[in-house]
Specification:
Distance between the termini: 6 Å
CATH class of the largest domain: Mainly Alpha
Shape: elongated
Strand content: 15-25%
CATH architecture of the largest domain: Orthogonal Bundle
Helix content: 40-55%
CATH topology of the largest domain: Triger factor/SurA peptide-binding fold
Largest sheet: 4 strands, antiparallel
Number of domains: 3
Strand order of the largest sheet: 2-1-4-3
CATH superfamily of the largest domain: Porin chaperone SurA, peptide-binding domain
Number of strands: 8
Structural class: alpha+beta
Radius of gyration: 29 Å
Length: 379
Amino acid sequence: MYDLAGRIRLVTISSNLQDTAETRQRLVPPVLRTLIDESLELQEAKRLNITISTNEIDASIGRIAKQNDMSEKQFQDVLQSQGVPLAALVEQVRAGLAWSKIINQKIRPTVEIGDDQVQEYLDRLKADAGKPQYRLMEIFLGVDNQQQDDEVRRTADRLAEQIKGGANFAAIARQFSQSATAAVGGDLGWVQEGSLDPELEKVATSMTVGQLSPPVRTVSGYYLLLLRDRRQTGAASDDVELDFEHLFLPAPKNASQADLESLKSTAQKVSDNAKSCEEFVDLRKQVADARVVLPQKVNARDLSPNLRDIALKLPPNKASDPVFVNDGVFVMMVCERSTEGSLPSVDEVRNRLGQEKLDLLTRRYLRDLRTSAYVDVRA
C-alpha cells in the first residue's frame, strides 16, 4: 500500500492532477496495473541475470532533473516537498532500465526489415500523396484476454476523465501507455491517412484539432487519441521540388503604363506559343532583354508567395500568364514537379518500420509474462 500510495502521488504531481480523494481513487487501477507490470519486468530481468547499478539509476534521475532545469539535489528536494517518496521514482526508473536491457538483449536482435518492405512503404507514401495527414498523440492500454476487457476499458475512461479535467496528456502517456511512444509522451508525429488501424482511422478523420477521442477498441487493446493538428499534403504542399523555366523582363526606370503593357504583351506571346520547356527556352532566347533570375531547380517554399501560388497550381509544360513582380514582368513554365523531397529517407523508413515491429514484439513479450504469472492482489 505504501508503494501504491507513493506512485499515485508521483503520478499526481508529474501529470498536473488535482490531489483529491476522488483523483487518487480513480488512479488506483491503472497505477496498480503498472506496478504489477514493473514487478514482472524486474523478475524477468533477474531470471536473465540482468542487473541495474546504482550509478545507472542516479544517471537516469539526473537526466530527468536536467529536463526539468534542476540539479539532482534540487529535483529530490522538490519531490520531498511535494510528499513524493524518492523510492517511488527509483523503482520506476529501475524497472524502466531493466526492461530496456531485456528488449535490447532478447527482442531487438530479432528485428529485421528487408529492402522490399522499405520500398513497399515508400511506394505507399507516394501513392497516398495528397491525402490528409494527422498530428496525433496516443495512449495505448493492452488487453491480453477477454476477461480484462471491462477493467481496461474502465481504466481508459478514467484516464480520459483526468485529461479532460486538465491532466497533461504527455505525462499520462509516459506513466500509463504501453506503446513505445510512451517514452516521448505518446507523440506519433504526422500520420498519413490510410496508415492507421481502421478503427483508429475512423475516429481520427472525424476529430477536430485539440479534441480527445473516447477509448477506441482495436484487436490489441484500447487507445486514447489526441489530435494536435491536421494538414493536406501533395500538390497543395509548399514542400515541392520544381524543375522550371522562366523569363523576367525588367521595366525601364520611370516606366510608363504603356511601357509596362508593352512588356506584358511581349511576355504574353511567349506564354501563348510555348508548348514545352524546350520551346520556352527557344522563345526566351528570341526576346531582347529577357533575363533568368532564378535557378532552374528550386523548392516551391523558397519562392515568393505570389510565384509559389502560381507554380503549385500550374500544370507541367504550360506557361503562366505574365505577372508584374519587382518592377518587371515574369512568366514561368513548370517542367517537372516532385514531392519526393518530402519523403523520408530509406534509413528513416527502416528505423520506423523496425520500431513498429519492436513495439509489437515487446507488447507480446509482456503479455506472455502476464499470462504465465500468478498475481495475488490484496490492495
